[in-house]
Amino acid sequence: MRTIWPVIAAMAFAGSAAADDHSPEQSAPKALETRLGDKGFESPPATLDQLGWLVGQWEGGGIRGAPAMESWLPPMGGIMVGTFVQETKGEDGTSAIMFTEHLYLMEEEGSLALRLKHFNADLTGWEEKDDMLTFRLVAIEPCAAYFNALTLRCADPERPGEGLVAAVRMKSDKPEVQELLFEFSAVKPRPDLSYGCDGTTYAINQCLARIRDKAAQREKRYFDAAIMNGPGLPKQVTLLERSMRAAQSAAEAMRKEECGSVYEQWKDGTIRNAMALRCEIRLIDQRTHDIWRNWLTFQDSSEPVLPEPAPSR
Q1: Which residues in the chain land under pLDDT 70?
Q2: Phi/psi of residue 10, each to 5°?
Q3: What is the pLDDT of residues 196-211, one digit of tens each?
Q4: What 3 state SS string does the chain have?
Q5: Buried (b) or exposed (e) across 7-32, using 16+ Cβ within 10 A?
C-alpha cells in the first residue's frame, strides 16, 4: 500500500523510497552522483538529441535487491517517454509489481525537464490527479544528464548503450547526504527462436527447412567469396586456401554432430525436427558471420566484400 512510503520532496527515479528499510541495502557512494542547483538557478541549453544514449531497456537491482527495469523510447514531438517497474516478492514467493513510474523527458524553454508520476500495482496513483514531480536540468555532459537531485549517466562514457547509472537524492534527518544508486545493464534482445514459422507441426518444419536451406546457400556464397576475393588471398590454391577449406569442413562436421545431438534429446517429442532445424540455422548463421568477419572485411574503412549477414528469416 502507498502508506508504507513516506512522502519526500526528492522522491524520484528508479525506486522512489525514503531512506528506511525499504531502500536498497547499500552504503552511500563515496562521491555524490547527484547535484543540486543553487536557489533560482537557470537550466543550461539542451535538447533531447543529446540523450540518444538513454534510449533502450535497462535492468538491474532495485529496492531490497529485487529486480527493476527502466525503458526509454526515442524522442517524439519534443518528449521522451519512459517507464520504470520495481518488482517485489508476492505472498506466494513469486514476482509481483511493487510500483511503477511514468516518466517524461521534455524540451522546455530551451532546456530539459524530467517529470514523473507513480502508480501502485493496481494502477492507483500516488500523486493527485494533476500533480507530478518535476526535476529541472542542472548540467549536461556528452553521456550524462544531471537534474536537480536526480542523475542519469552512462556507466562507461566510452561504451554508451551498455550500462546506465541512475541516482536520486533524498531528504533525510541524517547529517550526510542520502542517495539511492542504481546500476543498470542494457537488456540484450532475445533471439526469435520461432523464425516467424507457425501453424501445424508439418508447416513449422517445412518453414524452418526452407530457412535452413536459404541460410546454407548464403553460407556457401560467402565462403566462395572468401576463397576467390578475400583480402590478400590469391586465386590459386594455396596453403591458406587448404586451411580455410579444412576449417569449413570442420565447422560443418561440428554442426552435424551438435544438431544431431539436439534431435536425439528431443526424439520422443513432435518438436524434434524443429529443434534440430533451429540448431542448424543458428550455427549456419554463426559460421557465415565468422567467414564475413575473418575474410570479407578490411582493417581500414573500406567497404566489406559482401554485406554483414543478418540473422536468417
Answers
A1: 1-30, 189-193, 229-237
A2: -95, 20
A3: 888 888 999 999 999 9
A4: CHHHCCCCCCCCCCCCCCCCCCCCCCCCCCCCCCECCCCCCCCCCCCHHHHHHHCEEEEEECHHHCEEEEEECCCECCEEEEEEEEEEECCCCCEEEEEEEEEEEEEECCEEEEEEEEEECCCCECCCCCCCEEEEEEEEECCEEEEECEEEEECCCCCCCCEEEEEEEECCCCCCCEEEEEEEEECCCCCCCCCCCCCCHHHHHHHHHHHHHHHHHHHHHHHHHHHHHCCCCCCCCCHHHHHHHHHHHHHHHHHHHHHHHHHHHCCCCCCHHHHHHHHHHHHHHHHHHHHHHHHCCCCCCCCCCCCCCCCCC
A5: ebebbbbbbbbbbeeebbeeeeeeee
CA 222, CA 209: separation in Å to the nearest integer? 20
Q: How far is CA 299 from CA 131, 174, 304, in A?
A: 55, 56, 10
Output the 3-class SS for 263-278.
HHHCCCCCCHHHHHHH
For the purposes of burial, counting CB atoms within 10 Å of the CB of 238, is it exposed (0-12), middle (13-18) or buried (19 or more)?
exposed
Whole-angstrom Cα distance, residue 300 to residue 283? 28
Cα maximum dimension of the chain: 79
For the entire predicted model, the pTM comes to 0.55
pLDDT in tens, 23-55: 444 444 468 989 999 988 999 999 999 999 999
What values do phi and psi take at 219, rounded to 5?
-55, -45
Nine cell digits for residue 248: 569449413
What is the reported pLDDT for 237?
A: 59
Q: With both helix axes pointing from N to C terminus, report the angle between 272-295 and 239-265 in degrees, rounded to the nearest 10.
A: 160
